[in-house]
Specification:
It is a single chain. The protein is mainly alpha-helical and 506 residues long. It is built from 21 helices and 3 strands. The protein has helices spanning 2-32, 39-57, 60-71, 86-102, 105-128, 131-152, 159-167, 173-195, 211-225, 263-279, 296-310, 314-327, 329-332, 337-344, 358-377, 385-397, 423-442, 446-451, 456-465, 475-483, 490-503, and strands at residues 232-236, 242-246, 249-254. Strand 2 (242-246) and strand 3 form a beta hairpin. It is globular. Bound molecules: zinc ion. Zinc ion (ZN) is lined by residues 270, 274, 300, 303.
């Protein structure tokens, strides 16, 4: 019976995933190619497909099979190499099923409707720099997020923990505060030292860069990094993203800036890092709920590792800079390697998170985490939020926000009700460096490999240790297993302080 039941359960899981992937194709098309007037029909198509996928997830047959299989455990033989990890599958699917089941249908529909209104209000409010117009929607989204965590079964005093746990299983307010508090202090102090130093010129940033040439260069880099064009695509969209449409089909997008030859490229490398993770899953996990990144933080560690640790390193640029110069001889002909490397790693604190450098980035995240924590604890109100935001900006980054558009209204996340999501970006930095230090001990000569544009050993290490496991290993288990310690600040701080002390002569 066990094997038939398992087969049946896997079929139900697979059908749901196929529906979600079909919805993802439509969504990808909407972001990349859809003519403007197609939006209305597309919204309805997406709503139908997503509704069907949700129904599949809360199908009572799934619950019955999960219960039966929990009791009817197969003989306790250790799983063979490349065998489907059935116990992990049951654990993860039970969690997904349990969460979805606990939300009443009316509540799910109310959330979807409120989210649509809230996002539209946010777009308009940001345009008008008018926080007051968005505030009632934000209030509503916070209220719904509270209810959601309550439905999931979290106590009233720990609702934010519930939201955090959804994005990063196992990490709550207490754990994050213990990491982010000291991290903030270190970064604040270090940033002050850096900003007291003279800044590099980087005059080449103020010239014009043809976007079709940028595109050709980006494709050359992406192929050079080992992105398999038979298993994915690169397209253009207003906001860069990665989406998985199948085991052999991962799409990434970017956008090109006229005056900056690198922002499009760094998006390509960032999304490429996400894609390598998605494409590195073990074939045994194919079209199951395990064939996904194990958490938002671990996913972000992969994109940040490629974008920042590798993509902003000297060794990486040693061979790629001459190549970039060939595409833009007029703009870059007079720029030396050291000048270029310094400009790629300039640290200038600014109000906008997505434009932040490696040193100040995590401070933007910690600020958001602290705001969310206070909002859900009830020690900060929606009306007090902009003032609290601006004070923290000044305090942490030394930055004045000119208006709410470049302050409190800059991110889309809250308008979508995605509370508890922000910490994954900073966690991504921490995970990335802890993995990277271990990778460098395991593979001597990584720098030399980068200088020769050889990325195979890095890919193999990441795939073997992280990617192929998908969701079968929880983030806390993964980091401990690979690096033999729990997640901490050490590696990240060591990296930041070494790299930027040298760059800024500290
Ligand atoms: Zn990312």
């Amino acid at each position: 019976m066990y094997y038939e039941d398992m087969e049946q359960l896997r079929k139900l899981d697979r059908e749901r995933i196929r529906l979600s992937q079909a919805a993802a194709v439509l969504h990808w098309d909407q972001e990349c190619y859809l003519p403007p007037e197609g939006v209305e029909d597309r919204a309805e198509q997406l709503a139908v497909l997503q509704g069907l996928a949700h129904e599949k997830l809360i199908d009572p047959r799934l619950g019955e099979l999960l219960d039966k299989l929990d009791e009817d455990v197969p003989p306790a033989v250790p799983p063979a190499e490349n065998e489907f990890p059935a116990r992990d599958f049951l654990r993860v699917l039970r969690r997904d099923y349990g969460r979805a089941r606990k939300l009443p249908g009316d509540f799910v529909r109310e959330c979807a409707k409120a989210e649509g209104l809230s996002q539209a209000a946010w777009i308009e409010a940001r345009k008008q720099k008018d926080y007051a117009a968005f505030a009632p929607h934000l209030e509503k989204m916070i209220d719904l997020a509270r209810k959601k965590a309550e439905y999931w079964g979290w106590e009233k005093t720990r609702l934010y923990d519930g939201l955090l746990d959804f994005h990063e299983p196992g990490l709550g307010v207490k754990e994050l505060a213990a990491l982010f508090g000291p991290l903030r202090e270190h970064l604040q102090g270090f940033l002050k030292k850096i900003t007291a130093q003279p800044q590099p010129e980087g005059a080449f940033f103020h010239q014009t860069y043809d976007s079709s040439k940028q595109d050709t260069f980006c494709r050359e880099v992406l192929a050079g990094l080992g992105f398999n064009a038979r298993r994915g695509r690169l397209d253009l969209s207003a906001h860069p993203f990665t989406t998985t449409l199948g085991f052999n089909d991962v799409r990434i997008t970017t956008r090109y800036g006229k005056n900056d030859p690198l922002s499009g490229l760094f998006s390509v490398i960032h999304e490429g890092g996400h894609a390598f993770y998605e494409l590195g899953m073990d074939p045994s996990l194919r079209s199951s709920c395990l064939a996904e990144g194990t958490s938002m933080g671990i996913h972000e560690s992969q994109s940040r590792l490629w974008e920042n640790v590798i993509g902003r390193s000297r060794s990486f640029w040693r061979p790629w800079f001459p190549c970039l110069k060939k595409y833009f001889p007029d703009q870059l002909g007079g720029t030396g390697f050291d000048e270029f490397y310094r400009a790629v790693n300039t640290v200038i604190p600014g109000p906008i998170r997505v434009e932040a450098d490696e040193v100040s980035y995590s401070l933007h995240i910690i600020l958001r985490f602290e705001m969310e924590e206070r909002l859900f604890a009830g020690s900060l109100t929606v009306n007090e939020l902009p003032a609290a935001w601006n004070t923290a900006m000044k305090d942490y980054l030394g930055v004045e926000c000119a208006d709410d558009a470049e302050g409190i209204l800059q991110d889309v996340h809250w308008s979508m009700g995605a509370f508890g999501y922000f910490p994954s970006y900073a966690l991504g930095n921490l995970y990335a460096l802890q993995f990277w230090e271990k990778l460098c001990t395991d593979i001597p000569g990584v720098e030399e490999a980068l200088e020769k544009q050889e990325y195979g050993l890095i890919h193999n290490w990441l795939r073997e240790k992280i990617h192929r496991k998908g969701r079968s290993a929880e983030p806390a288990v993964l980091i401990k297993e690979i690096t033999e310690r729990e997640l901490s600040l050490e590696s990240f701080l060591r990296y930041i302080k070494t790299k930027y002390s040298e760059l800024y002569g500290l």
